[in-house]
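Possible regression after last week's pipeline update?

I re-ran a chain I had predicted before the update to compare outputs. Posting the input and the new output here so someone can diff against the archived version. Not blocking, just want to make sure nothing changed silently.
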Amino acid sequence: MPWTETCVMDERVKFVMDVLDCTYSMSELCSYYNISRKSGYKWLNRYRRGGLESLRDRSRAPHSHPHATSVEVKQAILAVKRRFPKWGAPKIRARLEREHPNWSSYPAVSTIGLFLRNQNLTCPRRRRRKATPTESPLTGGLYANEVWCADFKGHFKTADGSRCNPLTISDHASRYLLCCRHVDRMSYELVKMRFERVFRRHGLPEVIRTDNGTPFASRGLGGLSRLSYWWIRLGIYPERIEPGHPEQNGRHERIHKTLKDHTARPAAKSLSAQQERFNKFRKEYNNDRPHEALQMRVPSDYYSGSSREFPSRLPKVYYPEHMRVRTIHHHGDINYHGRRIFVTESLRGQHVGVEQIDEDTSLRWYCSYLLGRIDHRKWLITPAKSSRLSGQLAGRISEHKPGKVLPMSSV
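New output (post-update):
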């Protein structure tokens, strides 16, 4: 014969029924059920107050929580979340500190995250990939306006079928978003016009870092384009990442991810409505959205305009006396030692400097940018691996015409 299974609830009901039957005393029943008299009277009193349901186990949670999040704090969290629905717990915590500096304490990030999760206001995050280390000799960008990053976010279509090409420009050190504008075509003229407006408003940087796409690069000498040569003329060093390595411009690519989540999922009805979203996002990103890499401060706290103003006219190009100055012809070549050597069509009509190093090698410069090396034996020009202005040449140039020679001499 199998054993009869019982549960705790059944035993409590039997105990109470036996007590009410009054056949045995409380002491005898407690001894039989192997419980104390205190527990026996407890279950009897519970039954008298609430019936059989009161015999079930109660929650062991405390009735009051002295460290629980107050209603005021919860309402403040929800207010920030309603205003910035894409923000997570760390940014909401930083926003509370800015909006309520008089609070004695603030909820932990984990507390805010748990509260938002209970309110169904968050979604699980994807697992992050490990960052690929960058080994290329890129400029550090340790202070504002040392390095600007520029790129076109991937194009997409608005609800009316129009193609949107957002051009973005940001400061590498402060993460400040300088520009986020739709450009009809990725052409030299339109992109140059947009850069002119940014230069007039914020000044000139020392370096602009881009990828190898149009109009930032070309198939010409050293991969330079008309836009790159214009930057060189202004004293800005064009720096490009290696092909197929977007992680070398990772900070700017991260801005694109945030931009897409905030403005293009889904896209707006028209280009004008999409641009309004871009403007709103740029204002929020620079002035309201805390950044973990900035100790939860906003980019506008760290960014200030450049001291190098955009000139009304392009500065004239000077070369030291020891260099030979050559004019690039319409087809992109120059005459040198009775030979025609092709340079690039992007510099047609411009002057370049040729510095002879020895009998077999000459260097070709445009302003302060080293274009390449000329092999006198094969009469071929090869792009230079490092186009930075050498210290030896910088010294000779500054001695030639101090203060107004090459734009990069003041950087």
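Follow-up from reviewer: compared with the archived run. The chain has four domains: 8-55, 71-118, 153-301, 324-410. Marking as no regression found.
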